[in-house]
């Protein structure tokens, strides 16, 4: 049976990049085309679907509800195609390191640091993402980076950094509050929430209870099932999000995000590096990447070196 309807394939690649970056300019840079070419492909796809995918406001763009739903589906589909293609091409060998992690750790923590590792010529880095830590048993990887309260069996666990959870918002969003900034003002307007399917992450109800706050009921709530997109929504001034320390450090340092209250929740959980215990001889490229990874931690926490 013929698969139909199928959208223009080139437009899907462009749409995924533009939606991931929330920027036509960054998508153009990534795909090595002009910004005009990105705009034309997006318009072509929108005309084919008969729906607007982006809200265009001056030089800023954001996803429409239809665009967000479509992006989540397209991202998963393209990821599966990428993984299947990689398996066929057999990305294996002494000079390759395969890392499995979540979208959040990949986009917010690992990828911003990778440029320094790429100075090590001759090592190919392959990054795969999944939101379910239980997928690790069926994914061939050298290392995995995950937040987890209960890491899976048959994995060596090296804590990277502890879980610290606190609210963040954009400076512009915070500036709208007049007079004394109190928790009822901050949390009573618009909360950005991670979708309930992400059960391993602390939600607002749990955070309020654990820090001793009352259960605030916001006037508006936006639910998103992709953490990098949730943080981007906070940067765009759409509300307050729960942030995990180390994942948003760069945004706090740049001033793109601020902490409206100083309250922070510290738990016993950690973001961890997981290593399969049945890998046999560990290639030198994996040892090199592992040591580099631990050097990226504050105070170089962790066990450096594998011999």
TrEMBL record:
Pfam families cross-referenced by the UniProt entry: HTH_1 (PF00126), LysR_substrate (PF03466)
Keywords, ordered alphabetically: DNA-binding, Transcription, Transcription regulation
Ranges of residues in domain HTH lysR-type: 7-64
UniProt KW NAD keyword: no
Gene3D superfamilies (UniProt xref): Periplasmic binding protein-like II (3.40.190.10), Winged helix-like DNA-binding domain superfamily/Winged helix DNA-binding domain (1.10.10.10)
GO molecular function per UniProt: DNA binding; DNA-binding transcription factor activity
Domain of life: Bacteria
Entry keyword annotation includes ATP-binding: no
InterPro entries in the record: LysR-type_TF_proteobact-type, LysR_HTH_N, LysR_subst-bd, WH-like_DNA-bd_sf, WH_DNA-bd_sf
SUPFAM superfamilies, A to Z: Periplasmic binding protein-like II, Winged helix' DNA-binding domain
PANTHER family: HTH-TYPE TRANSCRIPTIONAL ACTIVATOR TTDR-RELATED, HTH-TYPE TRANSCRIPTIONAL REGULATOR
Family of the protein in this entry: Belongs to the LysR transcriptional regulatory family.
Official protein name in the record: HTH lysR-type domain-containing protein
Protein's organism: Acinetobacter vivianii
């Amino acid at each position: 049976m013929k698969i139909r309807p199928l959208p223009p394939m080139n437009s899907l690649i462009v749409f995924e990049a533009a939606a991931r970056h929330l920027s036509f300019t960054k998508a153009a840079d990534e795909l090595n085309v002009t910004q005009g070419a990105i705009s034309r492909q997006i318009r072509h796809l929108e005309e084919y679907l008969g729906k607007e995918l982006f809200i265009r406001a001056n030089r800023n763009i954001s996803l429409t509800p239809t665009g967000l739903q479509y992006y989540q589906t397209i991202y998963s589909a393209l990821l599966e195609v990428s993984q299947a293609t990689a398996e066929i091409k057999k990305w294996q060998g002494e000079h390759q390191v395969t890392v499995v992690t979540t979208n959040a750790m990949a986009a917010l923590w690992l990828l911003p640091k990778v440029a320094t590792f790429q100075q090590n010529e001759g090592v190919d880095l392959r990054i795969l993402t999944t939101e379910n830590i239980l997928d690790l048993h069926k994914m061939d990887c050298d290392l995995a980076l995950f937040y987890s309260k209960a890491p899976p069996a048959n994995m060596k666990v090296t804590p990277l950094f502890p879980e610290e959870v606190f609210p963040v918002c954009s400076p512009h969003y915070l500036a709208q509050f007049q007079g004394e900034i109190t928790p009822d003002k901050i949390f009573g307007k618009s909360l950005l929430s991670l979708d309930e399917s992400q059960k391993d992450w602390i939600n607002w109800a749990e955070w309020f209870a654990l820090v001793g706050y009352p259960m605030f009921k916001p006037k508006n709530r936006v639910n998103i099932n992709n953490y990098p997109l949730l943080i981007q929504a906070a940067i765009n001034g759409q509300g307050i999000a729960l942030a995990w320390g180390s994942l948003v450090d760069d945004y706090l340092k740049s001033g793109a995000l601020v902490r409206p209250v100083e309250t922070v929740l510290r738990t016993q959980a950690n973001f961890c590096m997981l290593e399969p215990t049945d890998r046999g001889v560990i290639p030198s490229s994996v040892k090199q990447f592992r040591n580099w990874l631990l050097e990226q931690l504050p105070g170089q926490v962790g066990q450096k070196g594998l011999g």
